Amino acid sequence: MTPASELAWVARLIEEAKRRILEASRPPEPEGGWRTLALVIADSAVDWRAGAILVLVKSVPLLLERSGRARRAGPVQLTAYVGLSSLRPEERGAFTYTSASALAASELLKRVEPDALFIYQAAATFPPEAGVREQLPLDIPRICRELRGVISLAQLHEAAYKGMEMMSRALRLKHPQPLITYLSEYCAMAAALAELREVARDVGVPLAWVSRCSRRLARSLGLDAWVTDEALLSFAWEGVDRAAIHALELADDYLAKQLAKLVPILAARRTWYYKLGPAGSISRMTHSGSLSEGWYLLGMLASAADKHGRLRVVERGAALASVRRGELESAWSHVQRTLSSSALRLLLS
């Protein structure tokens, strides 16, 4: 195949994907039957050295009233996590990002009773996928259940380290410590998600995650080697003011499948890609409930958006939650001072 014919072939694939997307799309219908929406707007930054990673997560809890008035529903939370080894830092950063966001949401639901909860994660796709395929002889669900007893925003380290201890004992140090660290951080995330699921169920509040688009939709259409979901949908919907498309996602990694009962959203979820107006961004909403409840939640967001399709309260919350470079450097400085008299300072080289 010549370069010209290959380009023509890719163009045909994109046009066919556009046709299929438009056939499956429908405009989200605004849903006005709500009084207050709870929002957790979170941002994250991850950095690494030779033998450690640093993850900073900042979250802002907000309450949005039907009138359009918004107010803070608690303090801005800044969570710093230092993990041993620099194996797969971006994936592990997404695990910690999700852990902190879920725990902030759980705390918010213990203070307020909204009609729905939305967790915004602009810096990563939800849920994070595990990138390791090595299967270890571990009871992952049991470990996650035990970590629920210790996990909190103030104790992310304790949960991850307890997970490492449990795994090391079970494996008798026969597997690389960086892999054990990776798995323990994934289990801490699962524990945080399980806690949020139970809290939301107890108070009867439906919830959804709004996160960064990836290539999962493009992959399902055979286009992930060439375009992102956001670029593909922007092209497909360029002449459409409001649109949404629903997809069912099934996880293919063994960790998520093992946790299907404890944290169902890791194994299977409903995902909506949507655009709420002519100036609205392409977004991704993930929900583990019914199809009708998911469309209802999306309708809430549609009714909260302005005529241009923008959610101004989310934009203001994102500005408050933004992690600054100076905050990351300050956190590294604190770690360096703490380890200055220890041999562990070599991890930061």
| Tally of separate helices | 12
Q: Regarding quaternary structure, how should these chains be classified?
A: single chain
Computed structural class: alpha+beta
Radius of gyration: 21 Å
How many DSSP E strands? 9
**Proportion of strand residues:** 15-25%
Gross morphology is globular
Q: Describe the biggest sheet? A: 9 strands, mixed
Helix content: 40-55%
Cα-to-Cα separation, first versus last residue: 48 Å
Please give a structural write-up:
The protein is α+β, with helices and mostly antiparallel strands. The chain starts with a helix and ends in an 11-residue tail after the last helix. It has twelve helices and nine strands. It has one domain.
Give a brief outline of the structure:
By secondary structure, this protein is α+β, with helices and mostly antiparallel strands. 44% of the residues lie in helices and 20% in strands.
